[in-house]
Structure formats: C-alpha cells, structure tokens
Design brief:
- The chain is of the alpha/beta class.
- The chain has a single domain, classed as Roll (2,3-Dihydroxybiphenyl 1,2-Dioxygenase, domain 1), CATH 3.10.180.10.
- It has a four-stranded mixed beta sheet with strand order 1-4-3-2, covered by helices on one side.
- This is VOC family protein.
- It holds the Pfam family Glyoxalase_6.
Length: about 130
C-alpha cells in the first residue's frame, strides 16, 4: 500500500488503562500522589462511569477506565518518561512500591512496576 498526501494523524491525545470498579481512591493515591500527576475533571456524561483522568506535563492525558471483569495487563503497558529515575525509585521504595530495574536497552535507564491493580508500568529516564 502506498500512502498519498499528508499523514492523517497529528499526534497522541491520551492513553487509557483499565482498572476494576471502585478504583478511584487508589488512582488518586498512585497517579496523583505517588507520580504527582494533576487530576483532570471528567466530562459529566463520562463521570458516572467511574475512573479518573490525569494530565501529563506535555499536555497529553492518562485516563483510568473502569472495565467489567477486569484482568491486569502484563504485556501491553503504559510507558512514562521521567527526568530522574533515581528519584522515582527512591519515592517508590519509600512508598512500598516495588521497582524492577531493566538494562536490556542500556544505556537507556528504565524500571518496571505495577499500578495498584497489577497493570505493568514502565518508567524510562529521558535522555
């Protein structure tokens, strides 16, 4: 297939991860408290569904969506960037959150951890 014309997509707006019903308090504590992301108001029509929205420093958004029969994701995952991976791992340790360092992409520094519901999460240090 040959593409013609300019790209149809201009960028990434948001990412949604799944969580079980009643996840809001844990979402606030983990994404708002531990990671320090600001919570964004959900439109009223969507707020009744539960979950939470958070802002990322680049203007994109992270949405936590309630899903029936929730199963944590192990392979598919969210990957976030940070400027100081040591600060992330220190805060995680102080918060009782396990981080698993990974050197497979060295010299890129990264760790894997789990959100409150068991979804895999990757944090990479910006180069």
């Amino acid at each position: 297939m040959t593409l013609q014309g300019p790209p149809l997509i201009s960028g990434l707006d948001h990412v949604q991860i799944e969580a079980p019903a009643g996840c809001e308090a844990e979402a606030h504590a983990f994404f708002g408290g531990f990671l320090g992301l600001p919570e964004l108001p959900k439109p009223a029509v969507l707020a009744a569904r539960g979950g939470a929205w958070f802002g990322l420093p680049d203007g994109r958004q992270l949405h936590i969506g309630v899903t029936p029969n929730f199963v944590p994701r192990d392979k598919g995952h969210l990957a976030l960037r940070c400027t100081d991976l040591d600060a992330v791992t220190e805060r995680a340790s102080a918060s009782g959150i396990s981080c698993v360092p990974d050197t497979e992409l060295a010299p890129i520094r990264r760790v894997f951890l789990r959100d409150p519901w068991g979804n895999r999460l990757e944090i990479l240090e910006a180069r």
